[in-house]
Amino acid sequence: MQTQEESLGDVTVLTITGHLDTSSATPFESVLMEVIDRGERKVMVDCGPLEYVNSAGLKVFLLAAKKLETLDGQLVLCALSPSVLMVFEMIGFTRIMNIAASRDEGLRMFREQRAEA
Predict the structure, then answer these.
(1) Which of the two ends of the chain, N or C, has the fewest CB atoms closer than 10 A to its terminal CB?
(2) Do 106 and 44 meet the contact criterion of CB atoms below 8 Å apart?
């Protein structure tokens, strides 16, 4: 698992590559929570290069989403591969997480949230 961080305006994008499993969930959680702890409130995780996720990885996404929600922030996951999306669907995460088909769609979700506020 590798991550890369970039800023797109006021949105912080973390791109995750490889496998998000029991051995990589804790390091990824540290990276994601560090982004939130330093004050970022609009966080998008680009899952395009993510090949595999298990329950430990799903837990990290849920923890980050809940933490951002309490801080009036938002987590958006984008570009999930069909195999990763299938896991999210089976667990029911597609109903409780903000999931966008692409980065552009994810950025639109943040703009729409700002317009509603």
Answers:
(1) C
(2) yes
Under a CB-based contact definition with an 8 Å cutoff, are residues 114 and 80 in contact? no
pLDDT tens for the chain, 117 residues: list them: 999 999 999 999 999 999 999 999 999 999 999 999 999 999 999 999 999 999 999 999 999 999 999 999 999 999 999 999 999 999 999 999 999 999 999 999 998 876 665
CATH superfamily of 2-96: STAS domain (3.30.750.24)
Domain positions in the chain are: 2-96
User: How big is the chain, counted in residues?
Assistant: 117
